[in-house]
Amino acid sequence: MNIVVYAVIVSLVVVLTSLVVRRLLSVKEAMERETARYVIKVGRRSAVDYAGVAAEMICCSGAERVVILARGRNISKAVDVAELVKRVFNGRVVVEDIKIGTEVLEGRRVSTIEIVLAATPPLLPRSAVTYKDGVLMGHEISSVDVLRL
């Protein structure tokens, strides 16, 4: 009789553990999907163009985090983009995480970087934000203003 009770308890523990693990995985996947919406892959365009896109994501789209990805020769441009965004938001955006790595592409190794920028509250409401000389000031912002960085 004791073996049956133990078997039932073990099976309940296994079922509950699997449910908890599934729930945790679904929460993690949801967070990754939310972050994936605000990813900038740095390529051939200028750093100012990418900084404008990042600023628009933070101001107009309400992104709490923006991920900047680059590899190879574009790594320095990605760092420039992060610094431009930090300067434009005057300290209200900080570098939350930096990951570096290596990928193998076509038989050769290429360095990669991932920079996560996080908006620290309080950001000004969208209707109260614009910039002057690269620094945020107070009144209406439009996507045209952001792209003029």
Please provide a brief summary of the model.
This protein is α+β, with helices and mostly antiparallel strands and 149 residues long.
What does this structure look like?
The protein folds into 2 domains: 1-36; 39-147, Alba-like domain (Translation Initiation Factor IF3, 2-Layer Sandwich). The chain has helices spanning 2-36, 47-59, 75-88, 143-147; strands at residues 39-41, 65-71, 93-105, 108-119, 130-132, 135-137. Helices cover 45% and strands 28% of the residues. Helix 2 (47-59) packs across helix 3 (75-88). By secondary structure, the protein is an alpha+beta fold. The protein is built from 4 helices and 6 strands, in the order αβαβαββββα. Residues 138-149 have low confidence and may be disordered.
SSE diagram, text form:
Layout (H helix, E strand, L loop, with lengths): L1 H35 L2 E3 L5 H13 L5 E7 L3 H14 L4 E13 L2 E12 L10 E3 L2 E3 L5 H5 L2
Parallel strand pairs: 1-2
Antiparallel strand pairs: 2-4, 3-4, 5-6
Helix pairs in contact: 2-3
Number of strands: 6
CATH uppermost class of the largest domain: Alpha Beta
Write down the Rg. 22 Å
Q: How do the strands line up in the largest sheet?
A: 1-2-4-3
**How does the major sheet shape up?**
4 strands, mixed
- Mean of the pLDDT scores? 76
The proportion of residues in beta strands is: 25-35%
Give the helix proportion (percent range): 40-55%
Short key terms for the protein model shown above:
149 residues; alpha+beta; Translation Initiation Factor IF3; 2 domains; 4-stranded mixed sheet; 4 helices; 45% helix; elongated; disordered C terminus
